[in-house]
Design brief:
Elements (H helix, E strand, L loop, with lengths): L33 E8 L2 E17 L5 E7 L5 E5 L4 E8 L3 E10 L11 E13 L12 E7 L4 E5 L3 E4 L3 E4 L4 E11 L11 E3 L1 H42 L1
Parallel strand pairs: 10-13
Antiparallel strand pairs: 1-2, 2-3, 2-12, 4-5, 5-6, 6-7, 7-8, 7-9, 10-12, 11-12
Length: 246
């Protein structure tokens, strides 16, 4: 006898569990385009830079979790800035009001350094960007404008009268949460000759890559010589045993 308040369960009944929706990961940004940024004074080029630039920034989502967004500086941003004897500034504006301002400075020659040993470098980078839902999926701060500056940099360092060149990726930290990523870089902020780059000084990372190839080839050749030598010795030993048996 089944009590009137009892519940019966069919033997083939199927329990349907709720569907769990996993958070989507935004697709990675495509490869950044290399742009040519040029400043002129009276028709003469005073600053020239070839760079492919990306930005990466952490942000907080609506569920409180921290995520990371990456985006490119697009082709042909608006270029402005100024050139001076000791300080030059390059400003890039894109996607509305987003900006990247790069300050180049000369390092004063002192001590054993001569005037010909004078260096230039990026001493400061300031960025302004808007935290949009398109760029920062599920952000809890959509529409917020962020400004980040690092004025204590020594990046893209080269000799005055030369250009600085680095094809390898360079990650320039602007804060705990924001980074500028530069690749395919060649810059000269002072003293260009004939409106073009002077002799390039390559960064250590590029030299390491270029040194790997001859080292790898040398190791491969050395290994091949060892293999041939071992094969020769084994063959000679077998031949010697054959002579003894005769």
């Amino acid at each position: 006898t089944i009590s009137p308040n009892a519940t019966t369960v069919a033997p083939n009944a199927t329990t349907i569990l709720p569907t769990t929706i996993l958070p989507t990961t935004p697709p990675p940004a495509p490869e950044a385009p290399q742009n040519n940024y040029t400043l002129t004074i009276d028709g003469k080029v005073c600053l020239m830079a070839l760079m492919a630039l990306q930005m990466e920034a952490n942000y907080t989502k609506t569920d409180g979790k921290v995520a990371s967004a990456k985006w490119n500086v697009p082709a042909n941003p608006a270029v402005s800035g100024s050139c001076g004897n000791d300080t030059s500034v390059l400003e890039l504006k894109y996607d509305g009001n987003d900006t990247i301002t790069i300050t180049f400075k000369k390092s004063a020659a002192s001590g054993l350094l001569q005037a010909d040993d004078e260096k230039f470098m990026v001493s400061e980078i300031s960025v302004v960007y808007m935290e949009t839902s398109a760029r920062f999926p599920d952000t809890n701060s959509s529409g917020t404008i962020r400004t980040v500056t690092n004025n204590n940099l020594t990046a893209f360092e080269g000799s005055v009268g030369s250009s600085y060149k680095c094809m390898a990726e360079q990650d320039v930290s602007l804060s705990m949460d924001v980074m500028l990523i530069a690749t395919d870089v060649q810059v000269q902020p002072f003293g260009l000759s004939d409106n073009n780059f002077d002799t390039a000084e390559e960064c250590p990372a590029d030299n390491e890559i270029s040194n790997i190839v001859p080292i790898a080839v040398g190791c491969a050749l050395a290994g091949l010589v060892v293999i041939v030598l071992i094969a020769y010795l084994i063959g000679r030993r077998k031949s010697h045993k054959g002579y003894q048996q005769v």
